[in-house]
Amino acid sequence: MTGPLPYVTAAWPGSGGRLKVSPEDFRVDELPAYLPGGAGPHLYLHVEKRGRTTRDVVKSLARTLGVGERDAGYAGLKDRAAVTTQWLSFPVARDPDPATLAGEGYRVLTASRHQNKLRVGHSRGNAFEVVVRGGTLAAAQASATGLAVAGLPNFFGPQRFGADGGNAALGRSLLSADPSPEARRAARDRFLRRFALSAYQSLLFNRWLAERIADGLFAAALLGDALKKLESGGVFTCEDPALDGPRVARFELSPAGPMFGHQLRPAVSGVPAERETRLLAAEGLTPADFARGGDEAAGTRRAARLPIEVALSPHEDGYTARFALPRGSYATVVMRELMKSDADLPDDGE
What we know:
The protein is of the alpha+beta class. 28% of the residues lie in helices and 23% in strands. Strands 1, 2, 3, 4, 5, 6, 13 and 14 form an eight-stranded mixed β-sheet that branches. Strand 8 and strand 9 (235-237) form a beta hairpin.
């Protein structure tokens, strides 16, 4: 499913409006998993950028600092068409003046040191400040209130799939016994292979979640469900819906949808098992087929429903929405619930 996804706030009208009229309309601040300790062989730089990708800034700073781009570290990629802040790490011995490291479209806010390289995933998530120009504040507030009660559907945003779903299609071909010429080329590029396979897994997750919402099971705990503890991340099988259902309602637990893979433990029984089996069968796949994707297609579980609080305030040309999301979740999914418009949602990734 790369087309329109269901809304959990469909009972409320959308605010309408436009996003990203200027980069300043979309601010993203990384929430680090930890702050640098102040000592160690790795230079940590807190960087603000505008109109540049994370890779652009990493490449420029690595060149300035005299280290290889591959030796640099970052927790995640940040949007180009926005104002964003994040930490980057470089294995350099000297402590440069942060003011001397500024480049086109970025500046260094703070410099520190730490014992280890910053790795992908070393963040708690991101805080967003989004201006919706021409949007109606009252309508957005109604949807935001509904979203706080219903929870955020943890869909992957459309940018995950590429133009016309091309990334996901490439990932599907990589799992085929007879991959396309494009897939054969992608198989030799580790980054592209991982990205394409993840896009395809994400597409299947979105289908699973869209079905679950359509069936009225978004906030339910079913016998045989894989459930995720939202605080610790642990996953277990639901054996007592009467016990686990209230914990789902309180956002202690969430149904955990499949990011299909050859090492993923499938749902064991009932409606959850039937749904997962049917989704794969519709694609002509079994879990074993994901072995063709190697380690990049091992599989995991993703929370389907997240708590969300959106703070809204008037803007001279609409309204501003402020909220935080865990890593791997998409601001565009929040904004589509408020605005009720997929057509006006740009990417919130690079």
